[in-house]
Design a protein that fits this description.
single chain; alpha+beta; 7-stranded mixed beta sheet; 6-stranded antiparallel beta sheet; about 20% strand; globular
Length: about 850
């Protein structure tokens, strides 16, 4: 039923229909429906304390339009929402206030939920998930154990960014200019014990399968660059003296070996201390401290000044026996290749800049075919200054030099990747506990004899204080492993998480069959299955919960599996996945990795998680800058909903410009969509709130309005399919202007237009639909069909020429026969005088455009 309001009272209208949808579970998706399915998914939000700003609903509005449109096409639509709720911000709030992160997180979720419901999105709230819910993270832990079992999870000491103030490990992307992105605190490099996932084992498939997805090409290129597959050779440089062994480097251009004039080691390379001569030790130590304060991005930025220091040692070039100095420089990373490079300054920009700065030799070994002599030269050409290979094209020289060095044991062909294995653990409290118990070797062997199927091909171990510890996975029956209560959320100064301070949770007697545990301070329970163990204190990163959430949405209440095979087969992956381009690499790469592992296990039916991906552009502040609290340019959607209504905000967000474009917020622009809705209201209803007198079943409707309706149905449908939502709004505005000016309109025409409007402005569409007698609710009505014949013109402007000169024109029937067109011209008052007494020698006729009569002079 419609509301009782006479005027366009959006507050009352929107509250009414939101309550109606919720009470009737209007957007509930049905698993296994006979209808064709459609799965529309947003990248789910992190519920921060700041709440939504107007940039968040941009993407949510777009997917909601698509979801409502697909329902109107008769599809069973899954359009879910949830919360990516573990993470550092909630933990830092706990550190400051002493409030449990769970309490703060649930308060933030409640606020986000309120804001999202106020915008009328057609989410299936029965499927709402929260990554901090034990029913959810039980399966995050279970998936981790599947990776562990397949040998894809291991422990290693790795150099990581450590922030003493935050007492947390930070990702490279969370560090800039030697400071943490959150709070701007100084950071340092520190070696810590880390869980690592072997994503590199899937590098080739992650690259190859990009051809199978409908993604923006720019996103595919970013993933390709991040994986960074390159073909080349590993080359061995003997060190001086020979007792020091060899230095291995990876190069994509072994053809340039004769131009190698120095070597470079990353500051973290294990041979740095070995190769540093006594006279250089102070300088090298100072340089290592300086490099440790820089992020990887800063070190590899071409625009940054390259710095380095000479180790005092030399290596021998295997191509020509030349003695080359070994330097240490910040532009080489330990995480790529071998952490050492052969520098060829004549043919590499960074090497050239470094050689110029430190006065190192530069030897050209590739000459351009066109005689270009600029340095560094990085194009194609033939070899020079390379005895035995001169004049060869560089690809041929590359193959021959590699083969020749390989025959001498000094090189071998190799494929290399920029992609590194995924550092998967965090020294934090607020994250999924890693379901691992550390035990002695003897206890591990005893457990392994009974649980061999749960264990990786090789034991996962780490050594501490000379003792080797073995990783024993919790059995599935022991999941979820929940977080214990702690007195302090502050990680320890040593880098261990707060979990390391909970003695009764940490040190346990562990039943390796059932997963049961009791504090080690208690007496050992009876039975052979109980062993002494220490729980893992690292927790998972926030990425873990978001790696697979799209699968849980298909079957969120399932306690027997992360989702049933039937639900996964029915829904498949999302048909549309929409979110910000800031997730173009890591989230998407990690999700694809986990998904492929699940596919290999036969647990999901397709090898790629997201078929179609679209990135919406950012909504900038009024000042043209990214919205942030610190800039004071954040626009709260609550204020817009209160002043203009949710439908107005939805329309404005779509009307601002192309969905993929970056657009500044203009507070004055909101008035246009608001006037559009008011104009529609007045065109449909009289002052008494009843249907306007000019709208009825028997109204005389202008043919142009009918034609415009069918054009609007077609264009808006096509625009939704292609996500050109701004032009769809523009088309609807054109129709409403015509409706307002028309002397009459049939009720069927207006109802059909409201069906087209409903995905964009669902509240006002529902209200007007009900008031005009449409079967309620509109969200259950089918998408209207357009009549192609109605779009064809019935008449055309015909231009009359006499001897090629324009003499008049007329509106004529489409495809008018030539004889009738000539007769029409002869009768035209402006054309007839030029034909009087003249004989027509020739007729040139282009139907619907031009009639040229050639007459005697």
């Amino acid at each position: 039923m419609p509301t009782k309001c006479k005027d366009y009272n959006f507050h009352e209208i929107e509250r009414h229909w939101q309550s109606f949808w919720e009470e009737n579970r209007s957007f509930s998706a049905e698993n296994g429906s006979p209808k064709p399915k459609y799965y529309a998914l947003d990248m789910f939000p992190y519920p921060s304390g700041a709440g939504l700003h107007v940039g968040h609903p941009e993407g949510y509005t777009a997917t909601d339009i698509v979801a409502r449109y697909q329902r109107a096409l008769g599809r069973n639509v899954l359009h879910p929402i949830g919360w990516d709720a573990f993470g550092l911000p909630a933990e830092q709030h706990a550190v400051r206030t002493g409030t449990h992160p769970a309490a703060n997180t649930q308060n933030n979720i409640a606020n986000f939920r309120r804001q999202i419901k106020a915008l009328g999105f057609s989410y299936d709230w029965d499927r709402e998930i929260d990554t901090t819910d034990p029913r959810y993270f039980r399966w995050t832990q279970w998936i981790f154990l599947q990776l562990f079992k397949r040998g894809l999870a291991y422990v290693d000491e790795r150099p990581v960014w450590w922030c003493p103030e935050l007492r947390s490990v930070l990702a490279n992307e969370e560090v800039a200019d030697g400071r943490s992105e959150m709070g701007g605190h100084p950071v340092e490099r520190r070696n810590l014990r880390q869980w690592v996932l072997r994503i590199t084992a899937y590098a080739d498939r992650l690259l190859a399968d990009l051809k199978d997805v409908n993604w923006p090409e720019s996103t595919k290129r970013m993933q390709e660059a991040w994986i960074g597959r390159s073909e080349g050779a590993e080359v061995l440089f003997a060190l001086e003296p020979p007792s020091l062994g060899e230095l291995r480097v990876f190069t994509t251009r072994p053809d340039t070996l004769f131009g190698c004039t120095y070597m470079v080691l990353a500051p973290e390379h294990p041979l740095v201390d070995v190769l540093t001569v006594p006279a250089q030790r102070a300088a090298v130590a100072a340089f290592k401290r300086q490099a440790a304060a820089k992020s990887d991005l800063e070190r590899t930025d071409l625009a940054k000044d390259k710095t380095g220091v000479f180790s005092g040692s030399f290596a021998i070039n295997p191509a020509n026996g030349a003695r080359v100095p070994v330097w240490i420089a910040d532009y080489v990373l330990m995480g790529y290749g071998t952490g050492a490079i052969m520098a060829v300054p004549a043919h590499d920009e960074r090497d050239h800049a470094f050689a110029v700065k430190y006065l190192l030799p530069i030897v050209r070994v590739v000459a351009a075919e066109n005689g270009e002599d600029s340095l560094p030269f990085t194009g194609d050409g033939r070899l020079v200054n390379s005895p035995g290979y001169d004049a060869l094209p560089w690809p041929e020289a590359k193959s021959r030099i590699t083969a020749d060095l390989s025959a001498r044991g000094a090189a071998r062909p190799m494929i290399n990747y920029k992609l590194r294995d995924w550092l998967f653990s965090r020294q934090r409290y607020w994250g999924e506990p890693i379901p691992i118990a550390w035990v002695s070797e003897s206890d591990y062997r005893r457990a392994a004899a009974q649980r061999a199927a749960d264990l990786p091909p090789e034991p996962v171990t780490f050594t501490q204080a000379g003792a080797v510890h073995y990783a024993l996975p919790l059995p599935p029956a022991a999941l979820p492993l929940e977080l214990p209560a702690v007195e302090s959320y502050q990680p320890s100064a040593t880098g261990e998480s707060p979990l390391g301070n909970v003695a009764d949770w940490l040190e346990i007697w562990f039943d390796f069959q059932s997963g049961a545990a009791v504090p080690a301070s208690d007496a050992k329970p009876a039975g052979d299955h109980w062993i002494r163990a220490r729980r893992e204190t690292n927790t998972m990163p926030q990425w873990a919960g978001s790696c697979w959430y799209y699968l849980r949405f298909t079957d969120p209440g399932n306690d027997a599996a992360f989702a049933s095979p039937e639900a996964l087969r029915y829904w498949g992956g999302p048909d549309l996945y929409l979110g910000g381009a800031e997730h173009a690499v890591l989230h998407l790469l990690y999700s694809r990795f986990w998904h492929k592992v699940l596919f290999d296990l036969g647990l999901v039916p397709e090898s790629e998680p997201f078929k179609r991906l679209f990135h919406q552009g950012n909504i900038l502040g009024e000042d043209g800058e990214k919205m942030s609290k610190s800039r004071g340019n954040v626009v709260n959607p609550d204020a817009i909903v209160d002043s203009h209504g949710a439908d107005t905000l939805r329309l404005y967000l779509m009307f601002l410009g192309p969905l993929e474009a970056m657009k500044p917020w203009n507070p004055r622009g909101i008035e246009g969509p608001h006037r559009f809705l008011q104009k529609l209201w007045r065109a449909c209803l009289g002052e008494d709130g009843e249907p306007a007198a000019k709208i009825s079943d028997g109204a005389a409707e202008p043919a142009d309005l009918t034609k415009l309706l069918h054009a609007t149905i077609r264009k808006v449908g096509e625009d939704i399919e292609s996500l050109r939502l701004n032009t769809a709004v523009s088309q609807m505005m054109t129709f409403v202007n015509a409706l307002q000016d028309a002397p009459g309109a049939t009720r069927a025409t207006v109802l059909a237009f409201l069906q087209v409007l409903a995905p964009f402005a669902p509240h006002v569409a529902e209200e007007l639909w009900a008031r005009l007698g449409g079967p309620s609710p509109i969200q259950g009505a089918p998408w209207p069909r357009f009549d192609a014949s109605r779009l064809q013109a019935q008449s055309a402007k015909l231009v009359f020429q006499v001897n090629g000169r324009h003499r008049g024109d007329a509106i004529a029937a489409v495809n008018l026969p030539e004889a009738e067109a000539v007769a029409l011209a002869q009768a035209h008052p402006r054309v007839a005088p030029f034909l009087a007494g003249k004989k027509v020698k020739k007729v040139v006729y282009v139907p619907n455009r031009i009639l040229n009569l050639v007459i005697e002079d």
